[in-house]
Amino acid sequence: MDRGKQGEPHPAVRSVTGRAPAYSGPVPALDPAAGDVLRPAQDTPTPAPAGAPAPVRTSGPLAGPSGPPAGVGSPAPPAAALRVRGLRKAYGPREVVRDLDLTAAAGRITAVLGPNGAGKTTTVECCEGLRRPDGGTVEVLGLDRAAPGAAARLRERVGVMLQDGGLPMAPRAGAVLDHVAALHTDPVDTGGLLARLGLTDVRGTPVRRLSGGQRQRLALAVAVAGRPELVFLDEPSAGLDPQSRLAVWDLLRELRAAGTSIVLTTHLMTEAEELADHVVVIDDGRVIAEGTPAELTGGSQVVVSPPPGTAPEDVRGALEALPGVEVAVAAGLVRVSVAGPLDAGALSAVTAALVAAGLGAAGVTVHRRTLEDTFLDLTGRRLREEDR
Ligand SMILES: Nc1ncnc2c1ncn2[C@@H]1O[C@H](COP(=O)(O)OP(=O)(O)OP(=O)(O)O)[C@@H](O)[C@H]1O
């Protein structure tokens, strides 16, 4: 799609220049030994409950900028890192974000989940200040994005990872990261960050010679190099191999533990389920559901294959009297939905009811509902299947 800004370097690295030799070495593996390099020196704090004020940022390597703690004489930190109300954005006559509300709690990971073209990137680009909304308000770290001077005041406090990386192509990977780090007052250790993301062996490689996955990880490193309080990540692990994806997820969890607020877009339900404290599902420019992954997926299913010669409706009849379940027949299978996690008691109640009715079953499987199921229920369509 046309990105408007595509091809331009990341705003933070536009002034990077440099010549670098061609890279011809092996593709580096992730360095498991680097796992602890960026961890906070002290015990990792547990994320605060939803709605709690922003956690106090500590002094570990990934912790937030140094400075006086909030308290008497300083403004209280906002409970929401991002608050979007009534956002609207059109490209020509086509409105792709429609009256969208979105709140991202401080110190939490908020995932904006939706299929291709849902409006995720447009929404975050409006929040990042890269696109001007047609309507609505965007409040970032308590500041109105549209207010005079807000962009300058937020530059040091907000990190951005664009979907296309937005990196300059000529300089070496390490030089790009070092340059960005040097623009900040309290940057992370860039060597440790490169190691953590499996990029040490390519730090001397020009960006243009990096693989797509390496560029993506470098873009993530650039986004977090200045210890931002809030970081926007557009599809941070799309297209990464499983090992790199896990390294990225670990880094994001560590950032959260250090108090960083994270807003990420994704079309990967596994990413949202694995990482997010709060998921905002959007489709066709609108929020269609939101909540914790558990709230959105809500429960489990026992799927019963009727024995040969038994009608699914008979099986349904035997099961629908069970308390606290909903029973449906689809594609010849009987689906028993149970609120919450499925325990042994609920499973044995299903099988006992089948035996009592003299029916038995050709097969019984347990299926935990996923965000994919939720999206399917809400829209009748699937999220993109690739990259799962
Ligand atoms: N600069 C642009 N000009 C015109 N149309 C655009 C532009 N950028 C995006 N669009 C269109 O707006 C709609 C929303 O795009 P957007 O990139 O925000 O969705 P998305 O949910 O991020 O999708 P993806 O997962 O593919 O990145 C799409 O139909 C897209 O083609």
UniProtKB/TrEMBL annotation:
GO terms for cellular component: plasma membrane. It is a peripheral membrane protein. It comes from the Bacteria. Pfam families: ABC_tran (PF00005). The keyword 4Fe-4S does not apply. Keywords: Antibiotic resistance, ATP-binding, Cell membrane, Membrane, Nucleotide-binding, Translocase, Transport. Residues 1-77 are annotated as: Disordered. Gene3D superfamilies: P-loop containing nucleotide triphosphate hydrolases. Residues 82-309 form the ABC transporter domain. Its main location: membrane. One of its GO terms (molecular function) is ATP binding. This is ABC-2 type transport system ATP-binding protein.
